[in-house]
Amino acid sequence: MSVSTTGPDPVGISGPLHGVASLEDPPPTRANRAVRAPRRSGPAGSKPLISRFTPYLFLVGAVGLLLLLTYLPAANMIWYSFTDWNGLGRIENVVGFDNYVEVFTNPRIFSVFGVSLYYFVGAFVQMALALYFATLLSFSTKFSNFFRGVIFFPYLINGVAIGFVFLYLFQPDGTLDTVLSWFGLSDPPQWLGDASIANYSLAGTSVWRYTGLNFVLFLGAIQSIPGDLYEAAELDGASRWQQFTNIIFPGIRRIIGLSFILAVAGALSVFEIPFIMTGGANGTATFVIQTLQTAFSYRQVGLASAMAVVLLAIVLVVTWIQRKLFPDEKVDLT
Amino acid sequence: MASRKAIVGLAAVAAATLLLTSCAAGGTDDSGDSGEVNGDITFLTNRTDLETDGTWDEYVAEFEEKYPDAMVKVEAITNYEDDVKTRLSTPNGYGDVLLIPNGVSPDQYADFFEPLGDAADLADTYQFLAPKTVDGTQYGLALGGNANGVLYNTEVFADAGITDLPTTPEEFLTDLEAIKAKGVTPLYTNYKDGWPLGGQWTNIIGAVTGDPTAQTVMAHDPAPWTEGTDIYALDSLLFDAVNQGLTEADPLTTNWEQSKGDFATGKIGAMVLGSWAISQFQAAATDAGADPSVVGFMPFPTNLEGQQYATVAGDYFLGVNKNSSNKATAEAWMNWLIEDSGFTDTQGMISAIKAADLPENLSGLSESGTELLEIAAAPAGEESLFSDTADLSQVDVWGNIYRQKLIDVARGQADGDKKSFFAQLNEQWGAAVDELAE
After folding, report:
1. d(CA A256, CA A262)
2. Which residues on B lie below 8 Å from A201 (Cβ)?
3. Is 0.90 surpassed by the pTM of this model?
4. In this complex, is the C-beta atom of B257 within 8 Å of any C-beta atom belonging to chain A?
5. Which of A36, A147, A155, B391 is spaced 20 to 30 Å from B211 by Cα?
6. Which domains does chain B have, with CATH numbers?
C-alpha cells in the first residue's frame, strides 16, 4: 500500500502536498459526493439510495453469517428442546416443558456436574500458575521470550492432538511411568484406569493446555501498566512482593475477573479432553459428554437440547452472580 | 428513522440468507427415472480399506462391463454411522445406494428408503431380511451375514491345556483362569474403543435360550436382567470375567487396531466378536508373521440340553435412496453386489442368498454341531420397540455406555455390585417398557 502512494511521487513529502491540493480541488470520491448531495437537493432525508445502504451492505455479510450459523441453530435447538424429536425425520410431538422437568428431576443428569468440580479447582491452579509466570516474566528475566514461548505453546496445539499425546503419556508403562521409575517410583497407579485418579489426570491435562492462554492474557495486562509506577515504587523501596500486591494485582483485576468467568464456564462445559481420552467412561463424563450421548447414543435430541439450554442458562446465571459479587470497579492506580 | 433502518437491515440479512440457502438447494434435478440401467449413481460404504486396496475399483469395473451405460461412484466414509446419519437430512445427500445406518429406526425406513418388494416373496431367495422388514415390506437387503460368538486363539487355548471348547459360562471362566496362569490376557474387552462392547454382545441375544424372538421378548420384559434370560447370561459372564481379573489390566487404554496384532501373537486369549472379524484377524496374523489358523471361532459358551446355538444376522443392509433419480441402476448395482460380486466369499461372510454355502471360516461351527439361529422378525408394529426401549431407558444395548459402566462396577471402580447394578438396569428398562406400553 505504501509503495503505491509514495512510489510515483519523486518528493519525499508527498502526503501534505496532496492534502493541500485536495482542499482546493476535491476529487470526486464517493464520500465527498455523499456530503455534498444534501446541499444540492435540500432536505436531509433524500440522500442517494446507495449511500444510505452502504453501512448495511458492509454489515450484511458478517451479520448474515452470524445469524445463519449461530442464532438460527440456537433458536432451532430451543425449539427442539420442546419436542421429543429423535434426530431424524419429522418432529412428531411437541411435549412442552417435559424435557426440562426430566433434566431437573432425573438425578443421573445433574450428578455429572460433580465432575466439573475437578476442572473448576484445576482452573484455579491454572490461574495461579499463569499469574506467577506472567509476573516473573514481566520483569526483565534472562531468556524471557523463550520462556514465554514455551508456556504459551501448549495452547496452540489442537485439543484432539493433546488428548492423544496424553493418552500415550498415561498408558501403563507409558512415558509418565517410565519417567517416574527413574526416580524410584516403581508402582504407579493406572492414571486413567483408576476411577479415583482419572479425573485428576484429565484436569491436569486441561491445566497444561490452558495455562498458556491465561498467561498471555495476564502478561498483556501487566505490560500495559505504565513503567514509571514500578520506578516510583522502587525509589520508595518497595519489594517485588509489594509491587505485585499494590501495583500488578490491582492493575490486572479486570483480566483476572474475566479469566474467572471463563474458568467457570469452561469447567461447566469441558468436552474435548475427556471425550478423546476416555470417551466419558470410568466416571469422567462431563455434562457436555452426557448431552452428546443423550442426543446421539440414546437418540433423544429433544432432551439433549433441553440439557444444552439448561447449561447455557447456568453459565449465564453464574456470570451474572459473578458480576454482582465483583462489580467492575474502575481501576485507578494513581 | 431507527425502525426503518432496522427493517432495511433485516431485509438485507434475509436476502443474504435466502441466497445462501438457495445455493445449497440448487442441486441436481436430473431427468426422471427411465427404468433402464444407465447413468451415474453414488454408493456409500463404510469399507475404506476396500477403497485403499482397490477392491471397489475392481467391482465397479466388472459392473460397468456388464452394464456399459452405467457409472458407479464409490464413496467410502470412515466415520460412516455419524456422517451418513447427518447426511440423511438432505434428500439427495446420501447417495443412491447406501448401507442403512443402524441409527435409523424401522418406522422411519419409509421416509428415506425405496421399498424393495414384499418380504414374503424375497424370502424365497434371501435370508437375514427380518431387521429391515416393516409391515411386510422390505427396505434393505443384507450385504452378507455374520455368526456371533467368540474369537479365540487356538494356540493359546492349547497351551493352557484346553482340549474341549467350553460350553457353559463356568467352564469358560475356568478356561480363562488357566490362560491367565500362562501370563496371557484371557479376555479382551476393547473398553476404550467401546463399539466392541455394544452390538457384538447384544447380537448374541437368542443364543442362550435358543429363542429367535429373544429381542422382542426382552423388549416386553420389565426385568430382563434376571437369571434365565439371554442378556443376563451375557452381562453376567462379562461381569464375572472382569470381576475375577480375567480381562486386560487397564481397560481405559485398550486399542482395537493394536489388539488384532496382540491376539495374533498370542498375547490375548479371546474376544467376543462376530465372524466378520475372522478375516481381519487372519490378515493381522499374517502381518505379524503368525499362522492365520490361530484364529478360531466358537459359539457363545452356553448350551441348552447339550445343544449350542449361534445367532446369525445380516451385517450392514443395502438400501436405495427414496429420492434417487436413478433407481433402476441403483437396484442393479445392489443386486449385483449381493449376487454376483463374490463379496461375501472374499470377506468370509455368510451369503445373503439362501442357497449359498457357509463360508470356510465357520466350518468349526458345523463340526461342533452348533445350530445357526436366524433372528426372527419383530411382529408388525413392534419393529423398533427393542431399540426404542433401549433409547428411552438409556440402557444402550447397541452402544457401549452401560457395559463400560458394568465393567467399572465389576472392577471396583464404581459404586455397587452385580446385584445392585443389575437391579438398576432392570429399573431403568422396566420404566421404559411401561412407558412404551401405554
Report:
1. 10
2. none
3. no
4. no
5. B391
6. 39-142+314-367 (3.40.190.10), 148-308+380-437 (3.40.190.10)
